[in-house]
Design brief:
Number of helices: 7
Number of strands: 2
Order of helices and strands: HHHHHHEEH
Radius of gyration: 17 Å
Distance between the termini: 44 Å
Structural class: mainly alpha
Low-confidence stretches: 108-112
């Protein structure tokens, strides 16, 4: 794994337990660390299979919006700031539902 090589090559000053936690988060394998039993929402941030909104999705949106001078990135920043963890799950404000729908299903919002 690339992360193992980075840990070996650079003096990162992180514990072996933290290394295993980060590897579990990256792979999405909850059973590899303690947080997988107590803080499941952390795995949703990195690899969220339920709705597909994870850090990669936000990164792609920000990059693509910048490339085409689209202002949608502002809505995504608002979405990030309004996100909460409720009962161990990542939740979004109902007011941001349209932004989420636009991001997840852009074909629904194209003019034909």
């Amino acid at each position: 794994m690339m992360f193992d090589n980075m840990v070996k090559k650079y003096p990162l000053n992180i514990s072996p337990e933290d290394v295993e936690t980060m590897k579990a988060l990256i792979s999405g394998r909850k059973e590899r660390c303690k947080l997988g039993r107590t803080m499941l929402f952390l795995f949703e941030i990195v690899v969220f299979d339920f709705n597909g909104i994870d850090v990669d999705k936000f990164d792609y949106i920000a990059r693509d919006c910048h490339a085409v001078s689209e202002k949608r990135n502002i809505a995504m920043t608002r979405l990030i700031h309004s996100t909460r963890v409720i009962d161990g799950q990542i939740c979004y404000d109902i007011k941001d539902a349209n932004s989420l729908r636009t991001v997840l299903h852009p074909s629904l919002h194209r003019n034909t």
